[in-house]
Write a structure and sequence with these properties.
By secondary structure, the chain is of the alpha/beta class. Helices cover about 40% and strands about 25% of the residues. Strands 5-4-1-8-9-10-11-12-13 form a nine-stranded mixed β-sheet, with helices on both faces. It has a four-stranded mixed β-sheet with strand order 3-2-6-7. Helix 4 packs parallel to helix 6 (about 160-165) and helix 7 (about 175-180) packs across helix 8 (about 185-195). It is globular.
Length: about 325
């Protein structure tokens, strides 16, 4: 089993109250792939420039990531620079966005990438997302499809985006963008309205405050993992997505309960990502560390103290 992810390959320069990290490995396809690699084989589809380090390609290969769909083009790799607020790390200012070779990127997938059981369309132009989806579905019509987007595409390509949503199984979206896409301020109403666009599941990301999950028969709210060591939140959302879909590919099931469990794993691995700059944490964690944090997370939400249905009814004299 395997996952194909289409997204950006980048170098980022990030400044937070904990320091400055220059030209660190980044991009949605990279964060996603490294997180997903904890569970399954991953095929990132993207483009990089002449300045991309051979050592970074080798790093990806050492982590069960197949780089055969990463293309090299003349020019520079996509570069982003951001400054995070010292008082509220949830706020950031984008200082530089140089698309470089990513500006004219058109995804191409080899046979292995086309045959993946899971396809994730990271945050790129919806027209490209739709083209990739057509290629993948033509080869494996049963593939499970995830989708990410942002305010840029909601504002500039809403019609195309909605076309992709109708063909997707899961849409992952930030809370502010969920409000923008749905026209609803209340996130419960926003989630349900987005589901009506055609996706089977909606996951609304709320940063450090966790996620909301919408399925046909249930709504779930999961808190974030409490950590007092947030150094760089840049790749948290893509790490969440990578581990979310990595888990789904590992278990081979896509029911409501699996979406719930995938969101727990996504929350846990994203919490590791923010504790160091760039992809450093993703390179250091292993299964034992993830399992230990899973147990910590279960304690955090008070799982062992939850009353049985009958005992709860007894307290209410029902």
């Amino acid at each position: 089993m395997s996952i194909t992810v289409v997204g950006s390959v980048a170098y980022d320069t990030v400044t937070t109250s904990f320091g400055r990290s220059e030209r660190q490995l980044g991009g949605s396809a990279i964060y996603f792939s490294l997180a997903a690699s904890k569970f399954t084989k991953t095929f990132p589809v993207g483009v990089y420039g002449n300045d991309f380090k051979q050592s970074d390609l080798e790093l990806l290969e050492r982590n069960s990531i197949d780089i055969s769909n990463l293309m090299k083009e003349d020019g520079l790799t996509f570069f982003w620079e951001g400054l995070y607020d010292n008082d509220d790390i949830n706020n950031r200012e984008t200082l530089v966005t140089d698309l470089n070779v990513f500006e004219n990127f058109f995804p191409t997938l080899n046979n292995s990438a086309q045959n993946s059981e899971v396809v994730f369309l990271a945050n790129i132009n919806p027209e490209l997302q739709f083209d990739v989806l057509g290629i993948a579905k033509n080869t494996n019509k049963h593939s499970f499809v995830g989708l990410d987007t942002m305010d840029l595409w909601i504002n500039s390509a809403e019609k195309s985006l909605k076309k992709v949503i109708t063909k997707s199984d899961v849409i992952m979206i930030d809370q502010s963008e969920a409000r923008l896409l749905s026209g609803e301020n209340n996130l419960k109403n926003a989630g349900r309205k987005i589901m009506n666009l055609g996706a089977k599941y909606v996951v609304i990301k709320k940063g450090e405050h966790g996620v909301l999950i919408f399925t046909n028969d249930h709504e779930y709210a999961l808190p974030g993992y409490l950590t007092n060591n947030v150094k760089d939140p840049t790749g948290a959302g893509d790490s969440f997505a990578g581990s979310f879909f990595g888990f789904l590919d590992k278990c081979g099931s896509y029911e409501s309960k699996d979406i719930f469990h995938a969101s727990i794993f996504g929350t846990i691995i994203a919490s590791f990502t923010v504790e160091n700059f760039g992809v450093k944490s993703l390179l250091l964690i292993d299964g034992e560390m993830i399992y230990k944090r899973y147990l910590d997370y279960m304690n955090l939400i008070g799982y062992k103290y939850i009353y049985s249905e009958n005992k709860f009814k007894d307290y209410l004299n029902l």
